[in-house]
Amino acid sequence: MEIQGKIIAVLPPKSGTTARGEWKSQQYVLETEEQYPKRLLFDVFGEDKIKQFDLKEQERVKVSFDPRADQKDGHWYGSNRAWSIERAETPIPAATT
C-alpha cells in the first residue's frame, strides 16, 4: 500500500535482542494533506533502513508499507511496516503567523 503526506512526529527509537540478534525500529506519524486529513503510524525496522530514510518532521513523503495484524495470547496487534520511502519533490510552504 502507499500513502502520501507530511511527517508530523518522529518517535524515539526502540531496540532489543532476540534469538536472531539485536534489532532496532523507529515509528513515525504521517498526516495526509486532504480536506479531512488522516494520520498513519508506521514503523521502519532495522538500523540500516532508519539511517537510509533519515526522516525528519515536516518532510513530505510517499510511504510504501505492508499493513499487518497478528494475534498472540488472545490479543490482536497491528503494524504498518514501511519498505520504501520517497521524498516529495516540492517542499511544504513555511507556516506564516
Structure description:
Strands 1, 2, 3, 4, 5 and 6 form a six-stranded antiparallel sheet that branches. With 97 residues, the protein is mainly beta. Helix content is 7%, strand content 60%. It has one helix spanning 47-53; strands spanning 2-10, 14-18, 21-31, 39-45, 60-72, 75-87.
Report the radius of gyration as a whole number of Å: 15 Å
Can you summarize the main beta sheet?
Answer: 6 strands, antiparallel
Structural class: mainly beta
Alpha carbon gap, first and last residue: 36 Å
**Overall 3D form:** globular
Beta strand %: over 45%
Ranges with pLDDT <50 over ≥5 residues? Answer: none
Total count of strands:
6
Q: How much helix is in the residues?
A: under 10%
Instruction: Determine the number of helices (DSSP H or I, runs of at least 4 residues).
Output: 1
Could you state the order of secondary-structure elements as H and E? Answer: EEEEHEE
Question: TL;DR?
Answer:
With 97 residues, the protein is mostly beta strands.
Write the topology of this structure.
Layout: E1 2-10, E2 14-18, E3 21-31, E4 39-45, H1 47-53, E5 60-72, E6 75-87
